[in-house]
UniProtKB/TrEMBL annotation, chain A:
It holds the Pfam family TgpA_N. Residues 406-477 form the Transglutaminase-like domain. The keyword Transcription regulation does not apply. SUPFAM superfamilies: Cysteine proteinases. GO terms for biological process: proteolysis. The keyword Cell division does not apply. InterPro entries: Bact_TGase-like (IPR052901), Papain-like_cys_pep_sf (IPR038765), TgpA_N (IPR021878), Transglutaminase-like (IPR002931). This is Transglutaminase-like enzyme, putative cysteine protease. Keywords: Hydrolase, Membrane, Protease, Transmembrane, Transmembrane helix. One of its GO terms (molecular function) is peptidase activity.
Automatic annotation (TrEMBL), chain B:
The chain crosses the membrane at residues 65-88, 94-111. This is Uncharacterized conserved protein, DUF58 family, contains vWF domain. It comes from Marinobacter segnicrescens. It comes from the Bacteria. Residues 226-245 are annotated as: Disordered.
Length: 689, 356
């Protein structure tokens, strides 16, 4: 048994297919290739069947296809469950549904699934471009639904459907915006799984200097910072993120694993209040990680981050969407405090073996330097004076990487030098650690904010100096000062390795002003989108509402929203009534008759439906004999009006009609007066017999 | 215009079909509940009937248009709730936005669907005629002050016809109404429905037409020739009549068939006389209700209908005799139609006559 594909209008199906492909687009880099290919193939099959060039599969073939694809899915997912894998399964379900879409019901099912697919898309992609693609997909799907309910003729083309939909969207836009602003942003009702457990571009929690850094080749945004006061100099902008304090001879990692904390519901947002002078606001892209980046001497202001040991900060839960947080710069405290023996052990840890030449070098240098600070400066001097090079194309260093770097290769980038210096410090019995984060950042449009990109990733060293506490040392600054002063582009200008693999990145063409300008304007749009649309959540809403008069809380917002909706519905109903009421009131004499009927009913007469004017006149006479004459005259007028020698079709009688109506109105007024007189004398609802 | 002045009779609550026969409550056996239910239904019917007058012409306005979400609309509402929950739990502004957008669109669609029906004027042009068991065509014309798309006109249960009309235009459509038995056929309520634009909502109203269609008895060929009614075969009607002594002759009148003229008499004395079989029983030209003694009345009518058709085919004149009604023998289209109509309406009163 195979399904008959011809039951659905071809146009509608075509639009639905287009909607599906549009909604699939934002997921292209997330979906496994086989799944995307299968979906397109299945949708294509449905299209071929519709146009009669192929047959839809029978029941058994369909089951076989379904079984195969689901088996492949299960094999690739292999037991991991996250929103990510669930969304993939959802996409697979949509793809399979295409083969079963034969009637209107199936069409509706597909429509609903596609709308929810759009919802899922928003979980993964929130920047303005992809959001527009998703919305376009929804619009196309809605047009498809319209086409399903319109006859297929020239008067009802797809274009008409699109225009009608556009009109509807335009008319409802104010309501949608009002709802968006005022609908109370409740706290999440329950904890939800992370959207994605896949690694993203960004820092990782370990650093192996021998590996090739891929981050330096990525121009993706890491975060953006807005300073209330003056923006610090480029060379002072060290964004600390992670402390790597455990070295196994090759790789630096965190001594303490990230402490397990139950997953917070979501990351709260930082609000919209104006920044104080010493505050700065960071809008971090989704990183899939908990850690956030902050300058030295920062203290959290927004409630969504907390400090952990080593003066680094963590989010409530991994940033699976972009997060905004606020920090405040403090003046340097100067109080160093003490390092506990356990901490001291931790920051002096080295593997027992390996890198013997470096250990020897540390002993030699320590001999010459009196203090810890002098030792650190001696190391920096060595980097500065001897021929060490900063390069993004370092040679591989599989064995004893520190020795290889210091004595043989003498070529490397920040991770190599930070690793080597920390090794030397520890070997000389000075507590030290590698700090990973970002350094620098380029100004955004009109220097409104800073953009920190992945290629700004950096690693440096902090050493514990008695009475001064943790002091930052950056060996890279000694070797390639341009990296610190103005960024990676200048540091590797000679080598020409800046973004050499990412030819599509606009940052690569920094020397073309037009490209730079366009890319910055785009960034500004995206920034505002992220800040005001995506980032408009609980705290932002409360901050905005606090600017309005009255103490508006969540509950008041609920009332406000309900009220707004009521008003909107009322306005819509009124507009509709006025627009269509005009047609119903085209018979002014009819209005007079119904008014007369109501008058009589109010006085207690039972007026049968369809009473003639003369009957009405008789009833009036019964109630108020004084009104008999005028009522009869009025009835005559009405009869003349409707059945008289007919001025209706003759042109040029408009003025006559209006005088006639005026006369009738006057007569009705007299009838009313008489009836009222009557009721004040005898009371209402009296029938003189 | 007139119908606003003199609202016509309302649909009869007793005869009107009930579109809201709830299956939900039908299993409940408790008499109290069923009383309440029938009470509610009666009130609902009465309420509808006040709003839907019986007339061949009707203009739909907001007082008589009903609107409810379809099953798909309900699922859509559920989907919006799920989307809102997703938005709340992920604090995802874009999902909020999409939910509000679709929700507002749903309300806008409510207006669209309602407006699609609002102001339309539907008129029954002509109810058709046909044999019982066949669909009877009803011709309607739809007029709209604005574009109206995909207006479905149909019985509560049964066939439907979909019409679309552009602004200030008119469009005709024919609805086939199933007929079961002979007589007057008046669909109690025709449902005028639209689900445009998204199918998430349906707006509907009813038309209670006055003018009934005529349904002829379903022709049933009698098992044997009726008593006294000899199949004429090839023998001419006149020659058969010659064998009859009781033929009454009367002077020729305009309109008499030439086949009935007694040409022999004419050739004899030039007198144009017509053979008249009035009052005569068992004449072969007469199709007689009493020719099938013992047979059920309705079946007799069916036999007669079949014989009428048969006579029309063979082209020989016939008369029809029913208790209380006699139709003179004649031939031709009009005669056939008249006979069939008489068979259709014999002992049937036009609907609505008793309602007044």
């Amino acid at each position: 048994m195979s399904l008959k594909p011809s039951l659905l209008p071809t146009r509608a199906l075509l639009w639905l297919l287009c909607g599906f492909l549009l909604l699939l687009l934002p997921q292209w880099d997330r979906l496994p290739v086989w799944l995307a290919a299968a979906c397109i193939a299945l949708a294509g099959w449905r299209w071929l069947a519709q146009t009669g060039r192929a047959r839809l599969p029978g029941r058994w073939l369909r089951l076989a296809i379904m079984g195969t694809l689901i088996a492949v899915y299960i094999a690739t997912v292999s037991g991991r469950f996250s929103v990510d894998t669930a969304a993939s399964f959802f996409v697979l379900a949509v793809g399979l549904k295409w083969l079963e879409t034969a009637n209107r019901r199936d069409f509706f099912v597909l429509f609903f699934i596609l709308v929810y697919l759009a919802t899922v898309n928003f979980l993964f992609r929130q920047d303005i471009g992809w959001s527009l693609v998703t919305l376009a997909g929804v619009v196309v799907t809605l047009v498809a639904l319209q086409l399903l309910h319109t006859p297929a003729d020239s008067r009802h083309s797809s274009f008409h459907g699109l225009r009608r939909l556009g009109g509807m969207l335009l008319k409802t836009l104010p309501v949608v915006i009002a709802l968006f602003v005022f609908f109370p942003r409740m706290a999440p009702l329950w904890s939800v799984p992370l959207v994605s457990d896949q690694a993203r571009t960004g820092l990782s929690d370990s650093m192996t200097p021998g590996d090739i850094s891929s981050l330096a080749q990525s121009s993706e945004r890491a975060f953006r910072v807005t300073f209330a006061g003056e923006t610090p100099e480029h060379r002072d902008r060290y964004w600390r993120g992670l402390i790597l304090d455990r070295f196994d001879g090759r790789t630096w990692s965190q001594w303490q694993q990230e402490p397990y904390r139950p997953l917070g519901r979501v990351n709260r947002d930082a609000g919209l209040e104006a920044l104080a002078d010493n505050e700065y606001d960071v809008l971090m892209e989704a990183s899939g990680q908990r850690w956030v980046y902050a300058l030295d001497n920062s203290r959290p202001v927004s409630a969504n981050i907390t400090e952990v040991s080593g003066r680094v900060f963590r989010l409530e839960r991994p940033a699976d969407t972009s997060v905004r947080y606020r920090m405040e710069l403090e003046r340097e405290t100067g109080t160093a405090g003490e390092l506990s023996p356990a901490e001291r052990r931790q920051y002096l840890q080295l593997p027992p073996q390996g890198n013997q030449r470096s250990r020897q070098l540390a002993r030699d240098l320590a001999m010459g330097a009196g203090t810890d600070l002098a030792f650190a400066n001696a190391v920096l001097n060595r980097f500065r004076e001897q021929p060490y090079y900063y390069t993004l194309r370092p040679p591989a260093m599989p064995d004893d990487p520190v020795d290889t770097l210091l004595f043989d290769a003498q070529r490397g980038f920040c991770a190599h030098y930070a690793s080597a210096m920390t090794f030397l410090l520890r070997a000389a019995d000075i507590p030290a650690r590698v700090v990973a984060g970002y350094q620098g950042g380029s100004p955004g449009p009109d220097e409104a904010y800073l953009i920190i990109r992945q290629y700004d990733a950096h690693a440096w060293v902090e050493a514990w100096i008695e009475e001064r506490g943790w002091v930052r040392f950056d060996p890279t600054a000694a070797i390639a000062p341009q990296r610190i002063e103005s960024g990676l582009r200048d540091a590797v200008a000679e080598e020409g390795s800046f973004l050499e693999d990412s030819w599509a990145s606009p940052q690569r063409y920094g020397d073309l002003p037009l490209v730079q300008w366009a890319s910055l304007q785009l960034d500004r749009i995206n920034y505002n989108w992220q800040r005001w649309v995506i980032g408009y959540q609980g705290q932002s809403q409360m901050d905005l509402m606090s600017r309005l008069p009255g103490n508006i809380g969540l509950r008041e917002l609920g009332y406000l929203t309900a009220g707004l909706m009521g008003v909107a519905l009322l306005v819509a109903a009124l507009v509709a009534a006025i627009r269509h009421g005009g047609a119903a009131r085209t018979d002014p004499a009819g209005v007079l008759v119904s008014r007369w009927t109501r008058l009589l009913q109010k006085r207690g007469s039972t007026v049968p439906a369809g009473a003639t004017p003369l009957e009405l006149a008789r009833m009036t006479e019964q109630q108020a004999p004084a009104a008999a004459a005028v009522a009869r005259a009025f009835a005559r007028d009405l009869n003349n009006h409707y059945y008289g020698s007919g001025s209706r079709s003759r042109p040029g009688r408009g003025s006559h009609r209006s005088t006639e109506l005026r006369l009738m109105r006057r007569r009705l007024a007299r009838i009313r007066r008489e009836l009222r007189k009557r009721s004040t004398v005898h009371g209402p609802a009296q029938h003189p017999s | 215009m007139h119908d606003t002045l003199y609202p016509p009779r309302a649909c009869n609550p007793e005869t009107a079909g009930n579109p809201f026969r709830s299956s939900l409550l039908s299993t409940v056996k408790r008499p109290l509940l069923s009383t309440i239910r029938s009470n509610i239904r009666k009130r609902w019917q009465a309420w509808i009937n006040r709003r839907i007058p019986v007339d061949d012409r009707r203009r739909f306005d907001r007082h008589s248009i009903f609107i409810l979400p379809t099953a798909a609309g309900l699922v859509f509402g559920l989907l919006l709730v799920v989307m809102l929950l997703t938005g709340i739990n992920y604090q995802n502004s874009l999902i909020y936005l999409l939910t509000f957008l679709l929700g507002a669109l749903f309300v806008a669609a409510m207006h669209q669907t309602h407006n699609n029906l609002n102001g339309l004027e539907l008129t029954l042009l002509q109810p058709g005629e046909g044999f019982a068991g066949e669909p009877i065509p009803f011709r309607f014309v739809l007029q709209a002050p604005h574009d109206a798309t995909a207006i479905e006109l149909g019985e509560e249960t049964g066939g439907a016809v979909t019409l679309s009309v552009s602004g200030h235009d008119r469009v005709e459509g024919t609805l086939q109404v199933a007929s079961r038995e002979r007589g007057y056929l008046r669909p109690q309520r025709l449902r005028v429905e639209t689900r445009f634009p998204f199918g998430l909502l349906m707006a509907w109203s009813w038309l209670c037409p006055v003018t009934p269609a005529l349904v002829y008895p379903k022709p049933v060929v009698p098992p044997r020739a009726p008593e006294g009614s000899v199949e004429a075969g090839d023998t001419e009607a006149v020659s058969v009549s010659q064998g009859q002594d009781q033929v009454e002759l009367r002077p020729w009148r305009e309109g008499d068939l030439s086949a009935r003229i007694d040409w022999k008499r004419y050739s004899r004395n030039g007198e144009m006389a017509v053979a008249d079989w009035q009052g005569e029983q068992g004449s072969p030209q007469w199709l007689d209700f009493d020719g099938f003694p013992g047979v059920d009345h309705e079946l007799r009518l069916s036999y007669l209908a079949a014989l009428v058709l048969d006579r029309e085919r063979t082209g020989e004149p016939w008369g029809l005799r029913l208790p209380g009604i006699t139709i003179e023998p004649d031939l031709g289209n009009l005669h056939t139609r008249q006979c069939l109509r008489t068979l259709a309406t014999w002992q049937r009163s036009a609907p609505g006559e008793g309602v007044q």
